[in-house]
Amino acid sequence: MSIPFLGPVLLAVWQHGPLPEQELLDLVPDVTSGTVSTALAALMQEGLIESCADRHGTLYGPAALCDETVARQAYAQATGASSCQGCGCTAAWPCPESCWWVTSELCSTCAGTRIVA
Q: 41-97 pLDDT, tens per residue?
């Protein structure tokens, strides 16, 4: 998938969705409506996001049957970001319970590392 802004659009939908396309234009700097539309279509085709119609138009959100790990891995691949080999988390899209890098390829969540108080 080498579609411009694919990663940032995916991240915005998963972190802020469901939301209309216009809000994506506000969340992803320097993106055009046509680029967002192309990215949304590609992400829906991959099963990473889904859309639904409401009275204000079409809303885009995380795909109900898509595991967040798969979505994070797709984000890392699309953006070239370093990611955890276990769960696919990145600096921009960390694990839900927060994490840090234990090695260059493994986050604290996957390594089982905890902060001891």
A: 999 999 999 999 887 778 999 999 899 999 999 999 999 999 999 999 999 999 988
CA distances from 92 to 30, 96, 103 (A): 18, 12, 17
Structural domain 6-62, CATH architecture:
Orthogonal Bundle (1.10)
Tell me the whole-structure pTM to 2 decimals: 0.84
As annotated, the residues of the chain forming the CATH 1.10.10.10 domain(s) are 6-62
Tokens of 45: 């085709």
Instruction: Give the tens place of pLDDT for each residue, 10-47.
Output: 999 999 999 999 999 999 989 999 999 999 999 999 99
In our burial notation (b when 16+ CB lie closer than 10 A, e otherwise), range 76-108 reads bebbebebbeebbbbeebbbeeebeeeeeebbb
